[in-house]
Amino acid sequence: MQLIPAIDLLGDDAVRLERGDYDRVLFRLPLEEFFARVVATGPDLIHVVDLQGARDGALRPEVIARCAALAGEVPLQVSGGIRSLETARAVLGAGAQRVILGTALWDDDALGRYVEALGDRLVAALDVRDGRLAVRGWLAEAGLDVDEALERCRDAGVTRLHVTAIARDGTMSGPDLALYERVCASGLKVVAAGGVRDDADLAALDAVGCEAAVMGVGFLSRLGITF
């Protein structure tokens, strides 16, 4: 079970939102300061979300390049506003190891084209609210439920999913184990996010079959940051 610390970007700061609500900022710190504190813990991978890009539909590759420089030897997986193959390639070129796409994948035959172009550097985002997929920074619905999305991913050859239980995000209420057990049954690699608090939650996610978990607010507590 791999623990992946999360760094969410809004403007030039690292932030945490509650349930993805842009009006409910729980925490804010200058990007350089927060990166230094995260990198000092020795992570194998850092999860970077450009919240501004997700909301506006225009991820900022120059900001990702800045993050890659701050991360040093630690690889990044990046999401937020990556809605074209050109942008995905720009993010990889800026220093990301993997790109997470959600909104752009569910139009027509887009999923297969992204898999063909990006291979295992693509991670498909299933951002789930009440059993259905949310897109566009969680502000809209994709018109798919979880099972429909899983079927599309399997058919297209996706190898890894990033699954967020939106209702648990930023709440420290524990992961939605029923959701993760359901998606792990697909046989795809699953990175869990939303509500992950501690080592007990990591063990529970491991038990249902997840390969990794992203920790946001819970990781702040590990750093001794309170708010």
Structural account:
The chain has nine helices and twelve strands. The chain has 227 residues and is of the alpha/beta class. It has one domain: Aldolase class I (TIM Barrel, Alpha-Beta Barrel). Strands 1-4-5-6-7-10-11-12 form an eight-stranded parallel barrel, surrounded by seven helices. α7 (177-184) links the parallel β10 (160-165) and β11.
Hey, roughly how much beta strand do the residues contain?
A: 25-35%
Which class best fits the helix and strand makeup?
alpha/beta
CATH architecture: Alpha-Beta Barrel
CATH class (first level) name: Alpha Beta
State the end-to-end distance.
28 Å
Output mean pLDDT. Answer: 91
The coarse silhouette is globular
| Tally of individual helices | 9
Strands ordered across the widest β-sheet:
1-4-5-6-7-10-11-12
Major sheet: 8 strands, parallel, barrel
Indicate how many domains the architecture comprises: 1
Query: SSE order, as H and E?
Result: EEEHEHHEHEHEEEHEHEHEH
Gyration radius over CA = 16 Å
Superfamily (CATH H level) name: Aldolase class I
How many strand units?
12
What would the CATH topology be? Answer: TIM Barrel
Measured as a percent range, the helix fraction is 25-40%
Spans of at least 5 consecutive residues with low confidence: none
